[in-house]
Amino acid sequence: MGAAQENVALRRRQQQLPLRPAGPLTVKSLLAWYEAERRDLPWRYGPRKAADPYKVWLSEIMLQQTTVKAVVPYFQKFVARWPTIAALAAAPLEEVLQQWAGLGYYSRARNLKACADAVVRDFGGVFPRAEEELLRLPGIGPYTAAAIAAIAFGEKATPVDGNVERVVSRLFAVKQPLPGAKPEIKRLAATLTPQRRAGDFAQAMMDLGAEICTPKRPSCLVCPIQQDCAASAQNLAELLPLKGAKAARPTRHGIAFLVQREDGAVLLRQRPEAGLLGGMLEVPSTPWGEKVPARTEAMRSAPVTTSWVPVPGAVVHVFTHFRLELVVYRALVPLDAGFTLWAEQERCRWVQRRDLHAQALPSVMKKIITHGLADN
Ligand code: SF4
Description:
Elements: H1 3-15, H2 24-37, H3 53-63, H4 68-81, H5 85-90, H6 93-100, H7 107-123, H8 131-135, H9 142-153, H10 162-171, H11 182-192, H12 198-211, H13 230-233, E1 251-261, E2 266-270, E3 281-282, H14 295-298, E4 309-310, E5 315-318, E6 323-333, E7 348-351, H15 363-372
Parallel strand pairs: 1-6
Antiparallel strand pairs: 2-3, 2-7, 4-6, 5-6
Helix pairs in contact: 2-12, 3-4, 3-9, 9-12, 10-11, 10-12
The structure holds iron/sulfur cluster.
């Protein structure tokens, strides 16, 4: 917030102005703040300007469950390599997965490619502008459809992400806990969305949530809509939104088999297309279950028959719905065909250590390799 705006905010506080119900004036204050204080992000265009739908879509898919800081370099890399949706559609899926590696939630990358293909095939390479049509594209849910419609096309749509959810629940002092309160928060957010500049409004709400109305210690004193905020008036800002009890995250166990060839290459396998980390490369392992598998049972999943050495310690990785704990077994095999790969060998490949960074390897697999080769 600039010094002038800060002074206005402080004057308001000193005058103890009464609570003003959230409405069009809230929107006006927020848009004025956005014009002066918005975050400078590589996919953004100035206020009052329509953005490039390709960049809006790409950034919104990348930002799902990922921070802005982590997304920026990936976004820049993707746009430099594939400047248009047609270029992305023409790229092989494997290359897209490789470039995505490290960003997590890999089904997003697969859907990204499927969506680019669909836009080029069914819409001549031009994104549809209506939320209903956007919703039919792969990987585009209600939030992303509303974000593209509002930000890229100026349609009156209301994207509600975690930031917006927090701002709205505080602005209206919604006391019902999440996730039950979601429909009500969505309804209240939509009551604010203006007919004009819906995209700027959506981005202003996102920025306010990220910069001012933060989860802990919101900066109410410099907030441009403090005069309209019921939670601030009731001293509830830090308590809202209320959250229902979280389900405990279960732990799954397994054994990963890290095979290294005499020339240093590591054996990797491509995961099935569907499901968690679909289509990505992995270090072969047992299925991940509730208990650590017994050694004899585990050996049925070993990719080669050889002498295996357990590596001390374990690899722990936390996914959204479960925590994974893997013990790593390591083996060294000869360069010639002095061993037999098991039945799934068509999904396997040898990758030299120097080439590992260029593979579509999810973070958990990188952790397994690092752990397994730590003293190597
Ligand atoms: Fe959030 Fe405080 Fe602003 Fe209300 S006044 S919207 S709680 S930062």
